[in-house]
Amino acid sequence: MHINMKTSLRDSLVIAVLVSIVSCQDNSRPNFQYFPNMYESIGYEAYQESDAFDNGIEAQLPAEGTIPRGDFMPYEIEDTNDGYALAKASLKSPLDAMQVDYNEGKILYDVYCGICHGTKGAGQGKLVKREKILGVPSYADVGRAITTGSIYHVIYYGKNTMGSYANQLNEQERWQVVAYVEKLKADLEK
Questions:
Q1: How far is residue 186's CA from residue 132's CA, in Å, rounded to a whole number?
Q2: What are φ and ψ of residue 179, in 5° steps?
């Protein structure tokens, strides 16, 4: 009986020590923090002065001559009247007949152009009918004599009250819209 009492006393003591160790453990926060900058990083504010960067501000300019990744291709013709005339006279679509998708062109046209130019390109979109925007001509107007290049140039830079859609449409999408506008123009001229 004496041996059993020692064993039970020792077991009780071990259990008490384990309970005290476990009860003091706080799992909600780590005891030691390795690499604290990984947990609590320094937040750099864009366009703020900083000694961390060579130019003294945090937002870095891209290297000269670089272009962003993705579908972006630089458009070399300037946003001037001479640039418009050059585009009108010489710019041609890089898409061949197999690459033109009139369904995609129509979807993009309806989203970005139809509200002003109308679904048929006659210059009678919803905003024109509600007199929110005035003077949107038909694609078939002889005085305008739009071409592939002039359409692309206007989509890229905008003209008069029409703004640029270069940020909304990538190059491939712009050419699809150009092809669809040319189709609408041909339909109006029949």
A1: 27
A2: -60, -40
What are the structure tokens assigned to 42, written together?
């320094």
Beta carbons of 140 and 122 less than 8 angstroms apart = yes
Instruction: Please identify, in words, the CATH class of the domain defined by 81-188.
Output: mainly alpha
Angle at the Cα of 54 from the Cα atoms of 52 and 60, rounded to 5 degrees: 90
Calculate Rg over the CA atoms of the chain: 34
DSSP E strand stretches across the chain: none
Look at residue 144 in the predicted model and tell me its pLDDT: 78
pLDDT in tens, 48-66: 666 666 666 666 667 787 7
pLDDT band (50, 70, 90) for residue 176: very high
| Amino acid residing at 120 | K
Residue 74 to residue 67: CA distance in whole angstroms: 8
* DSSP 8-state class, residue 93: -
Region for residue 35 given its phi and psi (left: phi exceeds 0; alpha: psi -120 to 50; beta: otherwise): left
Give the pair of three-digit tokens for residue 107.
């979807």
Q: What is the pTM of this model?
A: 0.64
Conformational region of residue 63, where left means phi above 0, alpha means psi within -120 to 50, and beta covers everything else: beta
Cβ atoms of 152 and 91 closer than 8 Å: yes
